[in-house]
Design a protein that fits this description.
- The chain has 242 residues and is mainly alpha-helical.
- It has one domain (4-241).
- The chain has twelve helices and two strands.
- A two-stranded antiparallel ribbon has the order 1-2.
- Strand 1 (77-80) and strand 2 (85-88) form a beta hairpin.
- The radius of gyration is 20 Å and the shape is globular.
Length: 242
């Protein structure tokens, strides 16, 4: 059927929206909110640098922990005893991906009267909704990649299985702010760009692929393995690429 994969895509986007807004994680308090647990650790670079200018002492965190309860205690960083400074546990790649949503939230907090402290409602909303947008983009790129090799019906079935038959539904809705969702989208984009580079090699696309792989490794260092995708794409035997 013509365009059935497109109809399926929009249906699944509606499912993602329904699940996300039925739970409304940005409205939750304490440890059920968006900016809690691991997410608060990924995110902490942004308020520490842009709001408090304090990436070493984290003197603002006791108040944040008391007011918003993202974790039971300061679990986002460990104390380097020799220097007396804190070191954040996570690499900064995820914070870079959050940054556009954070900056919009910071502006919204200042003009709306909410505390511009990095954890009030505008920040919770921005990271939640921005992460949902990332999930939709990832699904769109995945569909486009699949359509290069399979028909409409097959792609529609694959999208249904992906969203409704795997833990993708969790990581694109209530867990959308975690690295899994962002990395899925980056992988989908990397595959798209790898295909295009092999079809028509060029300097700019090669640089873009390098930046993508670098960003993925900065989000999670083990993702450096993603570099094998553009290098080995289209390889059908050992002798094909060597």
């Amino acid at each position: 059927m013509k365009d059935i994969s497109q109809s399926t895509f929009f249906l699944l986007v509606a499912v993602l929206l329904a699940v996300t807004f039925s739970f409304s994680k940005w409205e939750k308090k304490g440890k059920e909110a968006t900016l809690t647990w691991d997410v608060s650790g990924y995110y902490l670079y942004l308020p520490a640098v842009f709001i408090y200018g304090d990436l070493r002492e984290l003197t603002f965190m006791p108040d944040i922990l008391e007011r918003y309860e993202p974790t039971f205690e300061l679990q986002q960083a460990f104390l380097h005893e020799q220097s007396g400074h804190y070191v954040l546990k996570y690499s900064m790649g995820q914070a870079l991906l959050y940054s556009p949503f954070f900056l919009l939230a910071h502006l919204a907090a200042k003009v709306s009267g909410y505390p511009a402290d990095g954890f009030s409602l505008p920040y919770q909303m921005a990271i939640s909704w921005g992460s949902l947008l990332v999930a939709v983009l990832g699904l769109w790129w995945a569909r486009r990649n699949l359509l290069r090799y399979f028909g409409e019906t097959t792609v529609a079935a694959a999208l249904l299985v992906l969203v409704l038959g795997t833990n993708y539904l969790n990581y694109s809705t209530t867990g959308a702010a975690l690295t899994h969702n962002y990395l899925f989208t980056l992988y989908a984009l990397l595959i798209d760009q790898s295909i295009r580079w092999h079809e028509r090699p060029g300097y700019r696309r090669a640089v873009g692929i390098g930046l993508l792989v670098g960003l993925m490794a900065l989000v999670r260092p083990s993702e450096i393995i993603a570099a094998t995708i553009p290098l080995l794409w289209g390889m059908r035997s050992i002798g094909t690429k060597l």
